[in-house]
Amino acid sequence: MIETKALSPALGVQVTGVEDLLDDAVVGRCLEALKWRGVLLIRGLELDDEAQLAFSRRLGPVLAPGGKEIFKVSLNPNVNPAAEYLKGTFHWHIDDTTNVVPAKATMLSARRVAMVGGGTEFASTYAAYENLPDTEAERYEGLRVVHTFEASQRKTHPDPTDEQVAAWRKLPSHESSLVWTRDDGRRSLVIGATADHIVGMTPDDSRALIDELLNWSTQERFTYTHEWQLGDIVIWDNTGILHRALPYDPSSERTMHRTTIAGEEAWA
């Protein structure tokens, strides 16, 4: 029998009693929980890549960035040549903010876990927006934010070389509403490490507002911290859930296998 239990007051749900991940009832329950709770945890199944892909495809089309549907998340360059880039994931972020259509959801399965650290924190920008004082919510209406790859990389490399900056700026930027109103009427904040500046504001005022909103959104009451166990599957709504990895030893064997579900709705 499938049962669900909240992971925190504001977000997250654990699903138990799952025997067949591909069963229509299980898939439907997972999609519903993901929509309304933002983060979904299933423990103890220890999926291989084939099973992870099969389940991912029941949730939606699977993206293949770089031609690979499975992306190995590891700080070991022998496992992942992009290990240096992954250091940016220690900062709060939303994936795909520089794309026109963001990924709908991300799935991680824990293949190896760190002995110390290496958890993942999640924060709901749905809950953060819903709990804003009315005066603050009105203040953000109509504001536009520009997201860039450079903004996120400067958090990891505060004194970049000219070559690094030139490479970052080759990647596209994207402008969206600071408050995203979805087709279904739900609202969330589009913030995180890639948020470069607010259109029409001075650099200082822009940075102050972005930082203020990030601090608001990542209060303990809007967050959930996941401590990984071998075989865990965690799926989250990429469009309205900030996330970040917690520090761990780069020599750790911590390895996650990631699949990404294609989105259907463009940033507003």
Automatic annotation (TrEMBL):
GO molecular function, one term: dioxygenase activity
InterPro entries linked: TauD-like_sf, TauD/TfdA-like, TfdA_dioxygenase
Keywords: Dioxygenase, Iron, Metal-binding, Oxidoreductase
Cofactor(s) this protein cannot do without: Fe(2+)
Domain TauD/TfdA-like: 5-260
UniProt record similarity statement: Belongs to the TfdA dioxygenase family.
Name listed for the protein in its UniProt record: TauD/TfdA family dioxygenase
Species annotation: Nocardia callitridis
